[in-house]
Amino acid sequence: MPKTKGQESKRIFLLLRIGVVAAGVACAAVWLSREQRWSNLAAVFLRMNLGVFAATLSFFALAQLMIGFRWWLLLRTQSIFISLWSAVRLHFLGLFYNNFMPGVVGGDLLRAWYVTKHTDRRFEAALSVFVDRFIGLSGSLAIAMFFYCLFLWGQGGQVVLGLGSNSLRSFTKYKGFLLVVIIAVAAVFCGLMLHKQGRLLLKRGWLYIRIRGRSVVEKSKNALVLYRSKPMAILTILGLTVFLQLLTITGFWFLGVNLGVTAAAKYYYVFFPLSWAFGALPVSVGGAVVVEGLLAYLFICFAGVGAEQALALALCQRIVWMIASLPGAVIHIAGAHLPKDFSIDYKQPGD
Predict the structure, then answer these.
(1) Domain range annotation of the chain
(2) What is the Cα–Cα distance from 72 to 132, expressed in whole angstroms?
(3) What's the gap between Cα 128 and its chain centre?
(4) Sign of the Cα pseudo-torsion (249, 312, 290, 302, in order)
(5) How many CA atoms lie within 13 A of 66 on its CB side?
(6) DSSP letter at 150?
(7) Is the CB of residue 75 less than 8 Å from the CB of residue 82?
(8) pLDDT tens column, 143-168
């Protein structure tokens, strides 16, 4: 069966993301091969207490269980009554795909797909996955901004402002390229308008967008109105999000101290959530390399931590994520992510 253009573009995008991860790993390997850094990194890991690592893993695993509970609460605000353990199982399934399966379908999309098998309110159920992710990212940014303003404003403000101004200068530097892109898009549009088949294609495309867009906008509006009508539930979910992320960061702070990371706890509460937010950008597989690279860079440049210790801490976080997501593999193999009855009524809990 021939591949569609959409499938081909997704495959190319996936290869580019895998390429980013491969390039990052290669650069890290080259860097570690110099000045006995491999042996220094090994020494840092050998210093680690396995009991402390297990405690950090337990903190993270507990947080993931509670995140499943958070999503379950979010579903209930939309009158989607699946069982708590169904929500938890689907969360771990998505977590496993994010960390282990470099496919074109991410963990969130997979979770959105399978939750629709548990209810007939499919659009609202799928939308809840992305609302859940948005709340998680909002919590991360809120924690980073709060601790930055409270503890690091005087120390790192000039650096952060400098990074912002550099980004603005980079944007103005490539304004010519952006202008060429805009002109090219306009030229293609004019070419289609001048051709009869092109006009017909644009008309069909616009009609499809209008019909589908109107339906999506209407359903999204109804769902968001329902979320807005329950502010206490949303505030409770956001508060739970902040608590769970603080719990996770505290676990990594204990682990960092054990690894010999000489940085105050205030840096953890800024750098970790900031790296999580950047890791959500779809430029690599599961945020790999992006999260580790940014986290190590921040600790090295702004907290004065040794390069090997910072890299070890970043790698430990990835290892914790991967181990904690392994139950998702068991859930998938056992088929526990699917309801027993596909035709259940949405008012009844589904297992």
Answers:
(1) 13-163+229-334
(2) 10
(3) 15
(4) positive
(5) 20
(6) I
(7) yes
(8) 999 999 988 886 644 444 344 444 44
